[in-house]
Amino acid sequence: MALFNRGSEKSEMTFIDHLEELRGHIIRSVLAILVMAGFIFVYRN
Q1: Distance between CA atoms of 45 and 16, rounded to whole angstroms?
Q2: What global pTM score does this model have?
Q3: The dihedral of CA 21, 23, 29, 35: what is its sign?
Q4: H runs (alpha helix) in 1-45
Q5: Which residues, including other chains, have CB under 8 Å from residue 20's CB and lie 6 or more apart?
Q6: Mind listing the pLDDT tens digit for each residue in 1-45?
C-alpha cells in the first residue's frame, strides 16, 4: 500500500496508488473537521 511506504520507493505511482493517497487525505480531512466541529459544539456559548 502506498500509504505505508512513503519515501521508501522512488518509482512512479500508479493510478490506484494515487487514489489510495487521495483517500487517506480525504479521511484525515473529514476526521479533522469532525473533531473540530465537536470541539466547537461542546465549548460554544
Answers
A1: 45
A2: 0.65
A3: negative
A4: 15-42
A5: 1, 2, 3
A6: 555 665 555 689 999 999 999 999 999 999 999 999 999 999 998
